[in-house]
Amino acid sequence: MVTTTTLPSLATVKHLPYRGKLPLSIATIVICALAFIGLISGERDGDKSGYDPELDDRFEFDPEECSVVSGKWVFNSSYEPPYTDRSCPYLDRQVSCVKNGRPDTDYQRWQWQPDDCLLPLFDPEKALKKLRGKRLMFVGDSLQRGQWQSFVCLVESIIPENQKSMKRGRAHSVFKAKEYNATIEFYWSPFLVESNSDLHIVGDPKKRILKVDSIMKHAKHWTGVDILVFNSYVWWMTGLRIKSLWGSFANGEEGYEELDLPVAYRIALKTWANWVDSTINPNETRVFFTTMSPTHMKSADWDHKDGIKCYNETKPVMKKNHWGTGSDKRIMKVVSNVVEKMKVPVAFINVTQLSEYRIDGHSSVYTETGGSLLTDEQKADPLHHADCIHWCLPGIPDTWNQILHAHFGRRLRGGVRWQCMAVGWRRELGFVVGVGGFGN
Hints:
Elements: H1 10-14, H2 26-45, E1 71-75, E2 110-114, H3 124-130, E3 135-140, H4 142-156, E4 164-167, E5 172-177, E6 182-188, E7 194-195, E8 209-211, H5 216-219, E9 227-230, E10 242-245, E11 257-259, H6 261-279, E12 286-290, H7 329-340, E13 346-349, H8 352-356, E14 362-364, E15 368-369, E16 372-373, H9 376-379, H10 382-385, E17 387-391, H11 396-408, H12 415-429
Parallel strand pairs: 3-6, 3-9, 8-10, 9-12, 12-13
Antiparallel strand pairs: 1-2, 4-5, 5-6, 7-8, 10-11, 14-17, 15-16
């Protein structure tokens, strides 16, 4: 749906506060306009590149016209998730809340409704057709692993048993849809850059050391992928200064320096951005970045002063633009500033604001710790054992993939068109113009 906007008068514009660089230069507008004309012409004159109009969802959902930041959760009692934690065999026990004894399921029936448009439902057949002959890889931490498992569960039920396979690895896991010659992969890299806690997890955050300028140990596994979806947030949020290494140190890990969180994160993200810019061909690979997944550790954030973190919450927060202490705007600004300067376009899957409302969606006490389900004694102590970081599946990450899948609907066969869209998505996030609670 295209919204109509009344432009302010020139006098008003002159007095608007300056918010940084203009989001679109005249040259960018001209290039994007020419690209759009070329797109329309190509479709009118016939396309020899294998374009399938049935897979083009631009007129159903257009990320340049529809912001997913602003909206509300709508309860649909008749909605049934496309999978359960019993029907999908690929879910970790950590996120299988109903299977682990969660008694309520209403949290599965809330659907995100943007203010200005309709978000199309996830269509597994269409998703697999768009992924035909391609590799889709999610890169990041356990929250990104949850998004990967969600995507796999959303498509796997329509694939015959003998036409699919799963290979789980310590760092790299691959689900293969053989009929479509497609893979949906996850690569474990919680900081994106290298650290001493990549494979053998260091439980004590005080003992973790990051190599903030080193990434190739991980990045060599990302080459040749058609669609990359990155994320890195929650592992940084220890409340501590980050022990960081860079360059060459004769005394090895003893040569670290402790850096403030935003400083260390900026250096690491620039390392990632430099790899993307020097390695990725935007005509062959599309790059997404999932914004931070909020945590819900303080019930006072949503005025439930007698609550215990997210424990026993059964409904979303309904207050418009709710923003809690579990989402760090400093990190959002770092991501904004780094990505804005990149040569290769990166589009955001903006999940932060919509997930902020979902205090009811976490695995809470219906999860595992140390490889074992919580005991009754541990469940009775939610202050110390409720997990208000990870999400139950089916659940909120399904909506993240609904948004990702809607972006797949764009017919993107050239760097210019992709660049035009990425600029529009940066504007939507508010990283440039300060809407939706970001960039303020």
